[in-house]
Amino acid sequence: MNYKKFGIVGTILIMICALAMVTAVSSAEAATNDDNCTLQINTTAKWRLDLTVDGKYSSDEGVGSKTINLNTTDLKMASVTVNQYGGGATNVTLLKGNKTLEKGKSTGDGIETIYFYYQTD
């Protein structure tokens, strides 16, 4: 192997190692943030979510339970509306880390709407 090929291979290996280190550090920071806000939908029913977080609207729908990362640690306001289409109880919980900020639930009698509004003081 001549010096030119050795230099190219060495440069590529250094770049791969650097990229792996940056990725590992980024993943570790995201995984260790215990104050991140999430919305948990616990159900077996079909549902639709209308969500406003700090003035930004989004929607989602699905069947069964789901945890949604709100991508913030400094939640100021959240408006949550979950429409349940089907039987079975549905519990919706707004969390910051392991702390419950707000929650709502359905009785499980069929088509129902769960709504709550959260705002910091």
Pick out its properties.
alpha+beta, 121 residues, 2 domains, four-stranded antiparallel sheet, 1 helix
Task: Provide a descriptive summary of the structure in words.
This protein has 121 residues and is α+β, with helices and mostly antiparallel strands. It has two domains: 32 residues; 83 residues. Helix content is 24%, strand content 46%. Strands 4-1-6-7 form a four-stranded antiparallel β-sheet, with no helix packed on it. Strand 2 and strand 3 form a beta hairpin. About 9% of the residues have low confidence.
Topology, element by element:
Layout: H1 3-31, E1 37-42, E2 46-53, E3 56-63, E4 66-69, E5 77-85, E6 91-96, E7 99-105, E8 112-119
State mean pLDDT (0 to 100 scale): 83
Major sheet characteristics:
4 strands, antiparallel
Q: How many strand segments?
A: 8
Spatial strand order of the main sheet: 4-1-6-7
Instruction: Give the helix/strand class.
Output: alpha+beta
pLDDT < 50 stretches: 22-32
Principal-axes geometry comes out as elongated
Instruction: Round the Cα radius of gyration to an integer and report it.
Output: 22 Å
Number of helices: 1
Helicity, as a percent range: 10-25%
Question: Could you say how many structural domains there are in total?
Answer: 2
- How much beta, percentage-wise? over 45%
Measure the end-to-end span. Answer: 68 Å
H/E series: HEEEEEEEE
